[in-house]
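Marked as duplicate of an earlier ticket. Keeping the data here for the record.
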Amino acid sequence: MSLLSVLFFIIIGGPVPSALAQRLPAGVVPDHYDIALTPELGTARFTGTERIAVTLEQPSRTITLNAAEITFESVAVTAGGRTQTARVTLDPAREQATFAVPASIAAGAAEIQIKYAGILNDQLRGLYLSKAKNRRYAVSQLEATDARRMFPSFDEPALKATFSLAATIDTGDHAISNGAVVADEAGPGPGKHTVKFAPTPRMSTYLVALAVGDFVCSSGSADGIPIRVCSTPDKKGQTGLALEAASEVMRYYDRYYSVKYPFKKLDIVAVPDFAAGAMENTAAIFYRETLLIADPKNASVRVRRDIASVLAHEMAHQWFGDLVTMRWWDDIWLNEGFATWMASKPLKAWKPEWHMDLEEVKSNQKAMAVDSLAATRPIRAKATTPPEINELFDAIAYEKGAAVLRMVESWVGEDAFRAGVNAYIDRFKYGNAAAEDFWGTLTSSTGKPVDRVMESFVDHPGVPLVDATLECAGGRGTARVAQESGGAATARGGGGPARHWTVPVCVAVPGGKTSCALATGGPAAIPLESCPGSVFANAGARGYYRVVTPPATLRRLAANVGSLAAPERLALIADEWALVLEGRHDIGSLLDAASGFTGEQSAAVVETLVTTLKTIGDNLTTPASRPAYDAWVLGLLTPTLDRLGWSAAPAEPDDTRDLRAWLVSGLGQTAGSLAVIEKSRALVLQELARPGSVESTLLNAAVTVAARHGDAALYDKYLARSNTATNPEEHYRYAFGLASFGDPVLVRRTMDYILSAQVRSQDVKRLIAALLENPDARKLSWPLVRDRWTEVQKKSGDLVYGGDTVVIGALGTFCDSRTRQDIARFFATHKVPDATRTLQQTLERIDRCAALLPAQPATLSTWLETRRAGGAGRR
C-alpha cells in the first residue's frame, strides 16, 4: 500500500523540504506498547489508554510521535523515577503530536502515559466502523500510515516494538488481535467484558490488528499451529474453502522456509467493509469478504483460485513483511513483490490443474504494460508523504517486483535461490532490511552476480527489449541476443541517456535444454544443442523483457505455434500487441501471429488472446471492417467451443471450465455471435429461475455477455438477484453485471444504483470503473461520473485502497483525444493526490491508443480483405 523513500538530506544551502519533515525526528526509539481500547460501536467513538516504553538517545524536553484524528486527555512522561505532565502540540498537516515537559528527560529509558479518544471513522482506515446485518463492527486497517489513527505511535516501519493489547467490548461480542487471548474478564461496567491478548513479537505499527463484533470462527490446524477462519455468523458455512487452502499453504511454507511459521496462531478474518483486498496483520490477516467467503459447492474456478492465491500471498507476508520488514516504504517491494512471487508456489504443489505458471506470466504482462509507459517509476522510488506512499502500492511493487524475482530464480536455479532467501530471512528476522541486504545475501549465496541484475531492475524503470537472431552451422545453432538501448520506446522518454539493464536472457530449443546468457550493453551468443527453425528468446516466459520478433519469424512461429510452451505462446501474443502499441509493428503482424492460435487449449492463453482481440475490436475497427473482423474472430474461436460444448463434465478440469468461459466471452462480446448471445441469455434465465443449475465459471461469462445485449427486464432481474444473494460471488456477479448493460437509460440507472444506499462504500469506485470500461456505455459513463464527482467522493469516502486510482485507471480504456483533454481539464481542478501517477499513465494510455487511429484501422481493413480474398477466416 505504500512505497518509497530514499531521503536526501541537504547539508548545505537552504531549509529541509517540507515533505521530508513528515518523517519523525530521530532520537526516540520505542520498545513496547501497552494499549487498552474501549470501542463504543453505538456512538462510533473509542477511548484508549497507552503506555509506551521508549529509549531516548540523547537528553530532550520534547518527544514527537504520530497522531491523526486523536484527542488527547492527558499525557505524562516518566523517567528516572520522576513523572512530568506534558503539554501537547498538534501538527495536523504532518499528522504529528509533540509532547513537551518542563525539565529535560535524560538519555535512556522512559515511559509515556497517554489517555486519548478517537473516532470510529467511515473511511475504512485506522480503527473504523463497519456495518452488516443491522449491526456494527470495529475493524482496523493500519497500513501504510494509519496506526496513528488508532493509537499515538512511532508510525514508521523501522521503529519496531512489541505490543500488548486489551479491548473492553460489549458482552456477546468477540475481539480478535495479533496475540492469542490470554484473559477474558467481566467489566469494567455493566454489559462489558475485557479481552486481553498475549504480547506480540517485535513488529511494525502498521501490522497491529483489532476486530470487534459477533465474529464466529471455523477452526483447523497445520504443523501444530492453530488456524481459524472467522466471519459474521451468516457466513460461517462459507469459510471451508479458505480453511482448507490456509492449511495447505501453511504446510508448504513450513517446508520451504528454514524458519518455521514464526507466530503462535493464525486468525483469518472476513470483515463486511474492507478497502483493501486483504491485509497481512501479524497472525491476524483481515480480508474483504469476496476474497475469503465462497459457496463450498458452486464457487467458480476464478473464486476458488483467487481465495487460495490471496491467502498464499498474505500468509507469505508473515515472513516477507512481518518477520522481516523493509526499513522504509521505498522498499515496499520487499513485502509485496516477495509475497506475489511466493504465492504461486504452494498452489503449484497443491493444485497443478490451476497452471499457476501461466498466472505468473499474466502477472508479468500486467507489470510490463505499466512499466512501458513514460509515467512509470523504478521499483524503488522516493516517497515521504502519506499520499506518495499510498500510490506506491501498484503493479510495479507487486507484479514487477515478483517478475524480477522469478527471472533471477529461473536463472540461478530454484535450489540456490531458496538457499539465499532462507539466509536472508534468518539474518534479518524480527528486524528490518533494504534491497541491498537481499541481493547482497543472494549474491553471496549463489556465487552469481545477482546484485548487478537486481540493481539494474530495482533502481531503473522500464522494460528491456531484446532482439534475437538464429545462426546455424554443422547442425548446431547459436542464438545471438542483443538488448536495444533504452528499452520500450515509451519508457525511454525524450533526450535521456541510453540505458541498458543486466538481463539474463534464456532460450529454449524444442525438446532441448534451456541456455542463458547475461545481456548488457553488447550482443551475447547463446550456443544451442540443435538448429531449430526458429527460437523464442524468453524460455518459459520467465524473463522480464519483451522479445522483438521480426514479422517473417513471427509468421513462422505462428505456423508452428504448438512448438512453444503455453507460457511462451501467451508472451508471444502479449509482446506483439505491446509492439503494436509502441508503433514498432503494425496490426497485421499481430493478427498473423493470432491466426496460428486456432484450437488453443490453454485458458490463460485464450484469455490473453481474447482480451487483445476485444481491445482491437473496440478501438481499431470501423463500421465497414467490423463485419469481416467479427467473422475472422468467429473462425478463430468457434471450433474450440464446438469441441468443448456448453456443458461441463462432472470431473472436467478447472482449466477446461475456464477455457469455455473465455471462449464464450470472446465470441459473445468481441465477435457478437448471435448464437452465443442467445445461449448466454438462456443460461442466465435458467440460473435465475433455478439457482445452482448452471456451472458458475460459465455463468460468470454468460451474465456479462447477456447484459451487453440485455433489456430492462433482464436488468431488473440482475438487480433483484444481487440484493438477495447468499454469497459474495453471487452478489458481485450480478452487481457488476449491471455495469455491462449498454442502453443509455440503464447506464443512468446503474450510476444511480452505485450512489445509492444499496452499494457499500468499498464497492463504489470499483463499480464505476466497470461502467467506464464498458465500451457500449463509454460515451455516457464518463460524463455521468464527471458531473456527479462530488457525490462519488462523498459516497466512497477517502479510501486508501480501491479509491481514485481504480476510477482513473479505468479511464485509460478511452481512445480519443477529445475525451483525453476533458479528463485532463477535469482533474486539473479536482486533485487526486493518491493517484497523481495513475492519472499521468491514463492520459498516456489514451494518447498511445489514439496514435494508432490514423493508420492502423486501414491496415486492419487491408489485412482482413487479404484474408477474405484468400478464403481464410470465413464461416
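See parent ticket for discussion. The two ends are 49 Å apart (CA to CA).
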